[in-house]
Design brief:
Elements (H helix, E strand, L loop, with lengths): L2 E7 L6 H6 L1 H9 L2 E9 L1 H17 L3 E6 L7 H21 L3 E5 L1 H14 L2 E5 L4 H7 L8 H20 L2 E4 L2 H7 L12 E3 L16 H11 L6 E6 L8 H14 L3 E6 L4 H10 L7 E4 L6 H5 L4 E4 L13 H8 L4 E4 L5 H8 L2 E4 L4 H17 L2 H12 L1 H16 L1
């Protein structure tokens, strides 16, 4: 008999993140014998656009989707209201279905899950994803000079320790964050049980074997690229954490050596934002290529590049960061240029030989790396990168780890 579980997410399933980093895991857990109820908070515009596709997909997976509306404003009050409505729905669903596990993605759902644990004596998984409260500070989303945000930050940092103490199991995206947590004396039952599950990649989707040459040529033509171009790509959103200016500075130096270099952005960011930043640095906009790739097209678009780049602000909260793009690029056999001091990125790149690390954001550092590129790319073993992607980012391994956690806490 299937065991009833509830998965609570403040991220929407109609957002790209929900589709890549929630649904695949839940599909696997459903196949492994768990009857999953999915309670998620959906942005109205994304929900209207994608609800039928996601509803059909989840129904095929045997997952019962219970969406509620996400509210953006007014600040703080809208979040309080969202917590109220998610909690109300979670309690009603539990009374109807008698959940054995509340699996909570990030802090707000975990606060609700902890309430369910205390009230109904069910198991709770704190799938923390990252140091959420610190991300709000590091990302300049909360200003500690504002007394309201100061109090909110202190509340969540206190709650963070309680969630870590009380959860039956915690999931971290990185070994780096796990080590950090195990040093926290406020978590009085340390070392608490933590499993590390990074942002896994669907290696069946991100596979060179799926690339059709006709599609590749069509995108190449659409973007005005040729086989002779040296294409450096950037995959994903450009904001808060990602250092667009520094990546553009790197491209300026790359252009000195590779006059045929083009910078391809596979991103849903507004074209004007990327082009505006490039223009301010006197980069020829003919060298900047931007496309909003649908998920099914992303592997083909990635395949147009020789190398990919991502620079992330190396702040405290990023100890817990696992860039989704890293596994996807490795799976496609595309080496990366990335900076140090972000999650487990250093460790994985060095151990898998899947890229080159930038230790500081200086012109001389960029030039040193660019001088090594020819030799590095000549010796890159694409099959090795694909194998290493499976070692670190296999979705199947991630699903198995979650399944093992479920079995462990129920026994």
């Amino acid at each position: 008999m299937a065991i009833n579980t509830i998965f609570i997410s403040y991220d929407g399933m109609t957002d790209p993140l929900g589709q890549s980093q929630v649904i695949p895991y839940l599909k696997g857990l459903s196949e492994n014998g768990y009857k999953v109820t999915l309670l998620s908070c959906e942005k109205p515009e994304k929900y209207q656009e994608n609800k039928n596709t996601i509803a059909s997909l989840l129904e095929k997976c045997g997952i019962d989707w219970q969406p509620v509306v996400y509210h953006k404003s007014p600040p703080v009050l809208s979040t309080i209201y969202d917590i109220y409505q998610i909690n109300k729905n979670a309690i009603a669903l539990h009374k109807e279905r008698d959940f054995k596990i509340a699996h909570c993605r990030s802090y707000i759902p975990a606060i609700i899950g902890l309430g369910l644990k205390k009230k109904f004596d069910i198991k709770m998984i704190f799938d923390m994803r990252g140091f959420w409260a610190d991300e709000r500070i590091d990302g300049n989303i909360w200003n500690l000079k504002n007394p309201v945000f100061g109090r909110i930050y202190k509340y969540f940092k206190k709650k963070e320790k309680e969630l870590l103490r009380e959860a039956d199991y915690t999931v971290s995206l990185t070994e780096n964050a796990k080590k950090e947590i195990h040093t926290w004396k406020e978590v009085t039952n340390n070392p608490i049980p933590i499993e590390v599950i990074p942002c896994c990649a669907d290696l069946n989707h991100f596979s060179i074997d799926n690339i059709q040459e006709t599609s590749r040529q069509q995108f190449q033509k659409q973007l005005g690229l040729s086989d002779d171009d040296f294409v450096i790509s950037y995959l994903g959103s450009v904001g808060t954490w990602y250092m667009l200016d520094e990546m553009l500075d790197f491209f300026i130096e790359l252009k000195v050596k590779y006059q045929n270099a083009k910078f391809l952005f596979i991103s849903n960011e507004p074209r004007e934002f990327i082009e505006g930043n490039a223009k301010s640095k006197n980069i020829d906009l003919a060298d900047i290529k931007i496309i909003q790739g649908k998920r099914q097209d992303v592997p083909t678009l990635i395949s147009l590049s020789s190398v990919s780049i991502f620079f992330i602000k190396p702040l405290f909260s990023k100890k817990a960061s696992s860039p989704t793009k890293q596994g996807e690029l490795m799976a496609m056999g595309i080496p990366v240029i990335a900076n140090t001091n972000v999650g487990d990125t250093d460790f994985i790149i060095e151990n898998s030989q899947s890229g080159i690390l930038v230790k500081d954001f200086e012109k001389s550092a960029y030039q040193t790396i660019i001088s090594q590129l020819d030799t590095y790319l000549e010796n890159i073993d694409i099959s090795h990168l694909q194998k290493e992607a499976y070692t670190y980012y296999s979705l199947e391994k991630g699903i198995q780890k979650y399944t093992d956690i479920y079995k462990h806490i129920l026994n």
